[in-house]
Design a protein that fits this description.
With 460 residues, this protein is mainly beta. The chain is globular, with a radius of gyration of 28 Å. It is built from five helices and 40 strands. It folds into two domains: 251 residues; 129 residues, OB fold (Dihydrolipoamide Acetyltransferase, E2P).
């Protein structure tokens, strides 16, 4: 069949117009599935992960909205400057790394064990990157151990720092001309169990310190033309550290008044050793970023995923589907425990480490299908709501990075499936199918146990 050339030309022109209208100057989220981001990206509310780093190439903004959850994503500035506007977001184990001109502007957000620093070979005399935090909670990690005023401008207001080794600050010129200003200040912040250098303490304004360690290393303030004064607040009844008198710097420690306004105002809680925000729900399914080896500008925006006649391409906004593969062994269950989990401490089992591992286990396994070939140890009626019978498998002892974990698995049957179970004798080895309700590490008799509960069980 012959197609008229004029007809083809019109089709190509129409496609060209469609492409330009969707790609030029947009602030969409279609490009978020690209490995290289080179234009503005706005992430809709939801949960996001990435298997490989997101390379950022160009001068553009990345925006998040309240309720967004980012986990184990490496944002790496490849070239030029990027600006992150982070609002009401929980970031966990993420990297925010950029070059000259890189900027973080965060408010009402939490950063849990996130790596943040600048990189690259281009330099300026002052404030090469800017890090602004307002009403934020920052746990475990912050910036590199030492930052300098040529590369880092830091403006933290009404923030809470939890268990952070705060960076030392390397000054130049006359520090009294810029310290405690919007270029370098920690104002009305709360530090809990943090390590504090004198150089950082000098940048604090009306801050509170709880169970913090003040390091003894002194800084050079000889170039300061004006006195630098700090009033540091300590919880009432706590020991007051000795005042600091170092040339032009004076730090006085006083008991905090009961009505002192310091620290983040957003509700937060350390959940199992991990930071949690009630306003951010951690989803069961995640949208995966950077899943295709393209630039964001090469990914067309098809109207936010709306169907297009004759186009079967799935929407880039759809959450990543859960892994359809069934779990076929108890070893697979144990392998879902994060390899970095700190399950033991010098004194035995680590409750905080176990709680943190349980959070990750819940994300990885809840709702996942299983098909296990196991010997039964017990069969009895069940009192669990909606179930009439319960079968327990013989406990197994498995190894996890040198630790021995005792695995106890139970399967809950509804009435229509319990009849088939009645024909099975104790001690028999059978196939059991179902959906994971709970996978939880527990300390049991000074040993570590993994309790697995499978609902809607069936005998295939």
């Amino acid at each position: 069949m012959c197609i008229p050339i004029v007809r083809v030309t019109r089709c190509l022109a129409w496609l060209s117009i469609l492409w330009m209208s969707t790609a030029a100057g947009r602030a969409d989220s279609a490009g978020m599935i690209a490995r290289i981001w080179d234009h503005e990206i706005s992430l809709p509310q939801g949960g996001y992960r990435a298997v490989k780093p997101i390379q950022m190439d160009g001068s553009f903004a990345v925006n998040t909205v309240p309720g967004t959850y980012l986990e184990t994503i490496d944002f790496l500035g490849k070239a030029h400057d990027q600006k992150f506007k982070i609002d009401g977001t929980l970031l966990r184990k993420c990297k925010l790394i950029g070059q000259l001109g890189f900027r973080i502007d965060a408010k009402d957000s939490a950063f849990d064990e996130c790596d943040m620093h600048r990189t690259g070979g281009w330099f300026v005399d002052w404030w090469a990157t800017r890090w602004k935090f307002e009403n934020c909670v920052i746990s475990r990690d912050f910036l590199p151990p030492e930052v300098d005023v040529a590369n880092y401008a830091i403006d933290a207001v009404q923030c809470t720092f939890l268990g952070v080794k705060m960076p030392g600050i390397k000054y130049k010129g006359d520090p009294s001309k810029y310290i405690q200003s919007k270029d370098l200040r920690f104002e009305k912040c709360r530090f809990v169990e943090c390590e504090i250098h004198e150089s950082l303490l000098a940048a604090c304004v009306d801050c509170a310190f709880e169970n913090c360690q003040f390091l003894s290393k002194k800084s050079d303030w000889s170039k300061a033309s004006q006195p630098i004064k700090v009033l540091a607040f300590i919880p009432p009844g706590s020991h007051l550290p000795q005042a600091v008198l170092n040339t032009r710097l004076t730090v006085e420690f006083v008991s905090a008044p009961g009505t002192m306004d310091a620290g983040a105002r957003i509700p937060f809680s350390p959940s199992g050793g991990r930071l949690a925000l009630p306003s951010v729900k951690i989803p069961q399914q995640f949208t995966m970023l950077g899943t295709i080896d393209k630039k964001a500008s090469e990914v067309p925006d098809l109207g936010g995923g709306a169907s297009t006649p004759g186009n079967a391409t799935p929407s880039p906004f759809a959450p990543a589907a859960a892994d359809p593969a069934e779990i076929r062994s108890l070893d697979d269950v144990v392998r879902a425990i994060p390899s970095t989990a700190q399950l033991v401490s010098a004194n035995g089992l680590s409750p905080s480490g176990i709680d943190a591992a349980n959070t990750d286990l819940s994300h990885a396994l809840s709702g996942k299908s299983v098909l296990l070939h196991l010997p039964l140890d017990d069969i009895r009626p069940s009192k669990d709501a909606g179930y009439t019978a319960k079968a327990s498998a013989r406990e197994a002892r498995l190894s996890f990075h040198g630790l021995t974990i005792q695995v106890a698995a139970s399967f809950l049957f509804k009435q229509e499936d319990a009849a088939a179970l009645a024909k099975v004798t104790k001690g028999a080895t059978i196939n059991l199918r179902g959906t994971i309700q709970k996978a939880e590490l527990q300390g049991r008799n000074r040993e570590l146990a993994l309790v697995l509960t499978v609902g809607d069980a069936q005998l295939p």
